[in-house]
Amino acid sequence: MSTHSTERSNGTITVAPRNEAAQSALVVICHGLGDSAEGFADVAEMLASKMPYTKFILPTAPTQPVTMNMGMPMPSWYDIVGLDERSNENCKGLPDSRARLEGILKTEHESTGLPYSRMVLAGFSQGGALSLFTGLQLEESLAGLVILSGYLPAASQFKPKQLSTPIYHGHGSMDPMVNYALAEKTKAAVTAHGVTDYTLESFPIPHSVSPAELQKVSAFLSKVLPPDDSFKIQLKDPKDMSVKELKAAIRKAGLGNKAVGLMEKSEFIQLVQDHRDGKC
Questions:
Q1: Which residues of 200-236 are buried (b: 16+ CB within 10 A; e: fewer)?
Q2: CA distances from 199 to 170, 186, 225, 264, 267 (A)
Q3: What is the distance between the alpha carbons of residues 167 and 147, in angstroms, rounded to a whole number?
Q4: Who is most buried in 6, 93, 147, 159, counting CB within 10 A?
Q5: Cβ(25)–Cβ(39) under 8 Å?
Q6: Rounded distance, CA 30 to CA 130, Å?
Q7: Cα separation of 142 and 218, whole Å?
Q8: R_g (Cα) of the chain, nearest Å
């Protein structure tokens, strides 16, 4: 059985350890323009197989008109007028998407006690741009940022507070949409603010990701989010959970066959507790 379970709800995909008590890290992955969370579900599951203590959350952007694409509505974290420096300042919707990412991180922190230092924001293209813009302007420092084929949006509004957060930026040298020169300008602009740990690496690919690039991403994540049981999340005591919550935990853990025939709440409580304790 896989160490992780994948759940889909209202456009958000969550890939999490079957044993919730094993989680000690979080990665949020934001897709690119016109895509959805499904576009990176397989990537999240691949990374989860290498980092069994990590939860991955993949939100889907709201559907809205995109000026650069003749006003056609599509999933987009913010409006894109163009990718030249002047047009790139007009990013309607960026504050809302930034607030959404901040909300995801805050909810995870407050509900589980997981520190921000065990969280990473990642994204591809527009999702990478959003992650970069959001991650360095947080009040708390993250473990790192992963930017794939991304860039810095709304540069005049960008006021980074976290200058030591490690950044890995992978980018295609043959990218016709977000060309490599823009990646170099992004690194120059970000480091000019005093950011000290920014790695930009090129790959011989167009506007996409490659197996070699994902290997580097996996290595980066393992470096900034190494296994550490001292950061295991704080879960609600099974005794304080409702029957609905207990059944959801049992389903997520893949324990449905062990729950057959159980009738009493006390039996569900014992099953969940035994699973957390590694007894089943």
A1: bebbebebbbeeebeebbbebbeebbeeeeebbbebe
A2: 8, 11, 17, 55, 51
A3: 7
A4: 147
A5: no
A6: 8
A7: 17
A8: 20
Residues identified as active-site: 125, 175, 207
- Distance, first Cα to last Cα, the chain: 12
Residue-wise pLDDT for 103-150, tens only, equals 999 999 999 999 999 999 999 999 999 999 999 999 999 999 999 999
Whether the predicted pLDDT of 47 surpasses 80: yes
Q: Which amino acid is at 20?
A: E
- Which strands form 144-148's sheet, in the order they lie side by side? 4-9, 12-17, 54-58, 25-30, 119-124, 144-148, 167-172, 198-203
Residue with tokens 């980018």: 171
Find the helix packing angle between 41-50 and 211-224, rounded to 10°.
50
Sign of the C-alpha dihedral computed for residues 259, 251, 271 and 236 taken in this order: negative
The alpha carbon torsion through 102, 103, 108, 109 (nearest 10 deg) reads 60
Contact criterion met (CB below 8 Å) for 251 and 272: no
Look up the pTM and report it.
Answer: 0.90
- Express each pLDDT in 156-182 by its tens digit: 999 999 999 999 999 999 999 999 999
123 strand-pairing partners: 30, 147
What six digits make up the tokens of 137? 């302007």
Token duo for residue 250: 């049992």
